[in-house]
Design goal:
alpha+beta; seven-stranded antiparallel sheet; 3 helices; 9 strands; about 35% helix
Amino acid sequence: MNLVRPFNAGAGAWVSVVEALKMNRTAPWHRAFASHHRHVRPDRRSLSVYRGRVVSVADRVTSTTVSGQHGYTSVNSVPEVWIADANGQELRFIDVTLGDCRAGHEVVIVGDPAKDKVLSMRNLSTGQTWFSSSLTDLPFNGSHLFSMIPTAILFCGIASFISFAMFGEAWSRRTWWEQTAPDLMFYAALALGCWLPEMGRTWINHRNEALRVRITQELEAASK
């Protein structure tokens, strides 16, 4: 059975052609569902680009929380958007990035097919561009500082174990080197434990920045 895979924020993203026909949606049997579809490789990943006019917009409920004691109800939903390409073929996308789509708007969507995820959406009717929250730069804040603590504790523990294995207990160390080396190892491990999370944050931000630039290039090309 041929399968059509739209970008979907949740599980069950595979939709059979039979199911698509039952939903009165066109789905070709001989090729992928997007006529305006090509692959590029920013940061060693493939991107898929789609352009079309929004046919319908709905909210798909993902979870509901009800508190009978206080009469509190919480409903979480994700926008479900159908777009029609230049050939009239309709495609479905489900992602929070598509929240500002309205029926009749012309949009360009860039996604990561490997992760089945929408990365960006440009609304050509309103001139607005939206990026996925996964491409937001990680800030240097209290949460980031707090994440350094377990890493620093782990590295310091390893350094203490190695220094104990190499030099023994503190009372048995005789030479200046035996007394100083464990302290040097401890502070080096502490510095490394604080440095690695920061390097990871910087690497992620640089990767996201490069990916946003590539996505913007694809949006510009598809918008012409």
